[in-house]
């Protein structure tokens, strides 16, 4: 059952994807900037341009690439393959071409998917200067004997690598990074879904009166974009406590959490706890995939996991024109956003408490927190209080109690809020030493009574 | 096959339950004292009374409750519901009442189980002053239109909370606490089974010529009784090494060990090892249940697990009149006591040894401990010796070896006794440093030979 | 598909077993020396004799035993059971006998296997002076009523316990011990397979231009032989890093790795990683079996595992005449040697590296290590590079990366060799502190850029 607010949000997410779909994105160029313009209509993005030629760790920023027109035509001028029809038709970073080619000369520049003869593949050639067209096998079969006139009106010139960033400050210095890539052209699951969900989450967090963490949203080209951001922000890195890469949030598969490299960081445990309620899968880290592979590199070692549905390469539509607006349903996107928000809420709300009435059970009934008639089973709310009191030793956080008890984090959080109101809990701040000190003190007090 | 001794013990356990069954128990009052009188016929209980109004951690001891008579009658004086028929008919801690009530006035005070129309529920109202009757749905259906005369001849007056305690001293300062609650009226599985089994175990331990631990048996009302004991005995708490709560030891289910809060304490490992041989289940700690929830509270943090069969709330007869003397069989009780005794024996006998012939295998054949004809498989007794020698490094206890080897603890204990007799093992006492020192010394000796 | 080299090796292994089969081996005597002579034709064995009567830890070396002739004959001189027919006919360490016996007198000295009436059992009586014959049940059934003439022309006299040893020095002080027993007479799986495979491995290692470890091959009688070696080499023991006992490498079962006593030593992890590719089984340590039980004893605590196929006692042919040359196939032996060699290669090649380009992914494409056309899945070779770079933090070894990634060790080793050549990795030597120091330095460098 969806509320009106849910329906409005789904419509907003889809409209955003429909506007982004036709833009010609790559790892640099006007398409990236146009994409950031659309995203910035909802949340205030800071746009950063870093000049071509800048050294970024082991890399050097490539020239900026833009393409205005690109087609293959017969000698009568009929356009047989045309960038204007689909952004995937042109191999990304194709160099400029204008000329007539025999069929044999052209063929090495053409890419198809014989197993899916209706689909156009997605190909790039960022660092190896060449040109090419992607087309369906059916188009290739009908192409004729040639010769063919070919135009690629592109430029590869010094310019910039562009990314967008939004920082929402929190009450503490600790930060969470949420990253999704802006470089793929007309591919929806990979990655208009990540962009539209990230923007919704950012808008939600921006509206909250209180954030414990600073939240940092990155919208950058894959690999080189996140490396560029990492190289520009050495002062931010030590503050990053958690991170999530978002991509492929539609497409029919179960929700998949790809763990951080260490595999057991708080963000992993938050995701594990939340995803238990969904059709979902947990996967170990591997050094391949999206930008988690940069954040987790041994020189940075940042605890960044990834939320997707069916991962890249595991569905036939991946990196083809079949990854279109019909491939992703509103229900999937809504569920992805819901699960993501629950993970975010765990990160924001996880707290360690000390039970201030630690000698056995406090008399909850006297505080109106326990049913007055005995002999029956305890309610979920009472159980959540008992779990929270029974494990709040000043060292064990609510999330850890949720993991131990299998009680949903939200319910424990509600119980903790009540118990805090009744003076039965204290929040552990700072190093957490207070809780232990308190319990040591009560241990001594207990000893003194003899 | 049961021996005469087994049959006598079963008869003794049943007779004890039959005598306890009709007594009106609650968390205070004459019924508790009468119950302790019956238990004290077998083992010498110390009876402790703590005055009403005493502060016990977050609680204050309630007034003592006693009820002499309670009934609902029609206006002809026919008793329709009568405490004299069943102790469950009166809600425990009901306040005194004498008067005539219309049906509508009476109904809010009546409790039934519509799904089990023959059974009487069990209800209490210890801390919320009210009164009520429990009856079967069939009784309610036949009650008539009223009006009704109601008598509850009860008192709620300053008195005492009463519990019984038996301490059997051991060779060391270490103690084990065995706790079972005395507060439930005519409910057999919950908890006349715990009481009768605890008394048998206590009698067995009292007869032993040698006990390593001091054994402390508590017979106290649930929750407030164990809290009261805890508050009265701060000097004892640091000496408690293990604890077991006993309840629900009949009722047809498998043997269930509920782990301590930390889950891996020696008593957990002893129970796990023993219960492997039985139809049984291991469950993690949860902060709900019986008095283990008090002992394990963060302020005490005592390693107390619980032995039951089907736990509370998981069988329909729980907290109803159907939990009667027929609900529990002698065979179940005998098996529960047998398993409990095996756990107790592991706790009493678990020892860490140092292999005094640690350079490879000693020549067991020369000591008559190994078969003279080679080439055949080793016997169970030889294997138990090899496991004991092969792992007795001065740090690893017999129970740990039992866990690693899956050889029953009893068999390893017999092997260790033989090896000790042959001078091949030494018992590690004190800090356990000796075994390590010995092995370091032999390491140096080995080095000196070059 | 087997190569000519494979076929030659198989023929060599079988010829060696055929020559060893008829020799009368025991825990001492001429048969052991003749066995070492055969092995020494391939690799240069050092032969060690330790005098009878020498004290070896808890043991004293037995007299040397030799038997020239042994038979049971009827009074017409027909040999009914004859050591000349099969070495198993005589109980090992039988004392000398010459005389006439009634059937009743003889029977207690005869051993058969009624369940396998064609097979001769294997029996020994090393430490209990007695004599006996082993025969098939069919032979016993046909033996007749007697009387019988019996000859055992054996000697039990001061002599020596003999073992062979080969040491191949390595680049480091670290050593690996490979042990297989030479005491069993005409039993092929147990243990001519271990001997012939060990000799092939020794020959292979001897030919290598570079060995990281010193490799120490022992060919000694079971139990007392390895204890004798251990007692003679106290200076070697601290250098032993890994060890493998070899026996039962044919016989049709899956490859079985029996773990070291601690269960998680590097040799266990190497074997686990390699055996994953085979029909195989992993088993926990138990203090029974072959000489691993001596090496792992608490006084030595050496990390020695065992490679077998179906372990002793789990196949009916075990310790009978049915464990003959037909019981073991060349294919099984070849596979056992292949798996063993892979384990050895992991031990020799496992290395810890530091990623010298640790800030995200290095630009592999610029080094010709990455495909130029993007958008497709990564190849196995690229993935192996990414795993190696992604985890080489100066603390994590290639084997650990292999375990995490499930990428075969060999493939990671090839990738690491390429990356080392490209200057992207450095080998961690010594304490391993360098890698951590490097990463700390880059962390500081990163901080300095702000």
TrEMBL record, chains A, B, C:
Domain of life: Bacteria
Pfam families, A to Z: DUF2172 (PF09940), DUF4910 (PF16254), HTH_47 (PF16221)
Keyword Metal-binding on entry: yes
GO molecular function: metal ion binding
Cofactor: record remark: Binds 1 zinc ion per subunit.
Cofactor: Zn(2+)
Residues covered by the DUF4910 domain: 17-350
Domain (DUF2172): residue spans on this chain: 64-155
Organism: Nocardioides guangzhouensis
Keyword Cell cycle (UniProt): no
Binding site for Zn(2+): 184, 190, 319
Protein name: DUF4910 domain-containing protein
Alphabetical keyword list: Metal-binding, Zinc
Occurrences of domain UCP01524 winged helix-turn-helix (ranges): 352-426
């Amino acid at each position: 059952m969806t509320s009106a607010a849910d329906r409005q949000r789904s419509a907003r997410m889809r409209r955003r994807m429909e506007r982004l779909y036709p833009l010609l994105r790559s790892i640099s160029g006007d398409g990236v900037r146009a994409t950031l313009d659309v995203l910035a209509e909802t949340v205030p993005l800071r746009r950063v341009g870093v000049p071509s030629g800048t050294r970024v760790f082991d890399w050097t920023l490539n020239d900026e690439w833009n393409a205005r027109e690109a087609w293959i035509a017969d000698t009568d001028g009929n356009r047989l393959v045309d960038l204007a029809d689909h952004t995937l038709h042109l191999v990304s970073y194709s160099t400029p071409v204008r000329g007539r080619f025999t069929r044999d000369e052209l063929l090495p520049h053409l890419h198809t998917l014989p197993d899916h003869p209706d689909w156009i593949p997605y190909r790039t050639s960022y660092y190896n200067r060449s040109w090419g067209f992607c087309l369906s096998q059916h188009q290739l079969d009908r192409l004729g004997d040639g010769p063919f006139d070919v135009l690629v009106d592109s430029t590869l010139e010094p310019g910039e690598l562009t990314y967008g960033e939004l920082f929402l400050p929190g009450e503490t210095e600790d930060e969470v990074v949420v990253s999704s890539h802006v470089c793929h052209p007309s591919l929806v699951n990979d990655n208009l879904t990540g962009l539209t969900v990230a923007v919704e989450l950012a808008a939600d967090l921006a509206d909250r009166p209180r954030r414990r963490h600073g939240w940092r949203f990155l919208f950058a080209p894959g690999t080189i974009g996140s490396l560029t951001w990492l190289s520009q922000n050495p002062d931010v890195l030590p503050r990053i406590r958690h991170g999530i890469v978002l991509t492929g949030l539609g497409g029919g598969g179960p929700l998949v959490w790809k763990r951080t490299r260490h595999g057991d960081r708080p963000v992993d445990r938050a995701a594990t706890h939340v995803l238990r309620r969904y059709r979902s899968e947990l996967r170990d880290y591997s050094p391949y995939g999206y930008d988690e592979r940069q954040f987790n590199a041994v020189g940075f070692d940042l605890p960044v996991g990834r939320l997707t549905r069916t991962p890249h390469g595991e569905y036939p539509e991946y990196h083809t024109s079949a990854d279109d607006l019909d491939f992703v349903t509103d229900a999937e996107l809504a569920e992805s956003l819901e699960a993501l928000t629950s993970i975010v809420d765990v990160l924001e709300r996880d707290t360690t408490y000390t039970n201030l009435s630690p000698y056995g059970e406090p008399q909850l009934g006297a505080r109106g927190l326990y049913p007055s008639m005995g002999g029956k089973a305890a309610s979920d709310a009472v159980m959540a209080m008992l779990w929270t009191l029974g494990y709040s030793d000043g060292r064990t956080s609510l999330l850890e109690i949720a993991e131990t008890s299998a009680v949903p984090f939200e319910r424990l959080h509600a119980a903790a809020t009540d118990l805090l109101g009744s003076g039965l809990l204290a929040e552990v701040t700072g190093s957490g030493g207070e809780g232990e000190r308190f319990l040591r003190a009560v241990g001594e007090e207990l000893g003194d009574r003899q």
